[in-house]
Specification:
The chain has five helices and 14 strands. It is α/β, with parallel strands linked by helices.
Amino acid sequence: MRVTWFGHACFVLEHDGLVIATDPYTPADAGLRPIDRECDVVIMSSALDEAHACAEAVPGSPRVLNALDAVGQPVEIADGVVVEAFAASEGEDRPDDPKANALYRFALGGVAVCHMGDIGTPLSGEHVERLRGRVDVLLALAGAGLTIALPDLDAAIAAIGPRVVIPMHFQIPSLLYAVGPVGDFLDRHAGERIVEHDRSTIEIGPADVGADAVPAIHVLQPAGDPLVNERTRT
C-alpha cells in the first residue's frame, strides 16, 4: 500500500489500482495545493467541515462517502474494501453538526488503516474496544488544539496498538488552519522509533505491520504545501 500525505488530514492511499483520498481540505482556505491524483473514492469524516470535506477538489469522478453514513452499518467502497466508522465529535461544547464526525477504518492490501477524523475528545471505551488489535496504521491527529489532547492521543495509541503511526493535522509552513506543531507530540515519544522522512510518500506492506515489526512513528512531508516543496527543490 502506498500512502501519500497532502497536508492536514488528507491522504491518498493506493493499492492494486484503487486510489482512496481521505478528508480532503478546501485548497484556498487551507493554503495548500489541491490533490493532483485521480481518485476512485473519497472518504470524509464529516460532510460539513470545509477542512475535511472538499470532495469537489479531488480529480476524477470518485465515489464520495461521508463516514458518518457508515456508523453502525459498514459500507463496501470497492471490491472487498469495507469502511466501518465510529461516531465522534470535535468538541463536547457542540455535539451537533458540523462538529459531529467519525473515525473510520478500512483494510487495503492486507493493511488495516484507521483515520482519526476530527475527533476532539478522548476515545470512548467503545471506540477502543472495537479498534484494539485491529489497526495496523493509525493516521493520528497530532496537532492538539481543537482536536484530541496529546495525553489522550497517547492513551489511544497505547490501547489500540498500531504498528505504524503517521501524524497529521499539525502545523506546516503554508497551512492557514490553526493547529499545533508535531514536535510536541514527538517529544512525548522520545526513545521510541521515529522516522522523519524527506518525502510525502511511503510504502507499507504486511511485513511492516506484522507481529515482529518494531512500532514506529513516520513523519511525512506534505505534498500539498508549496513552501515545503519549493524548499525541497532548492
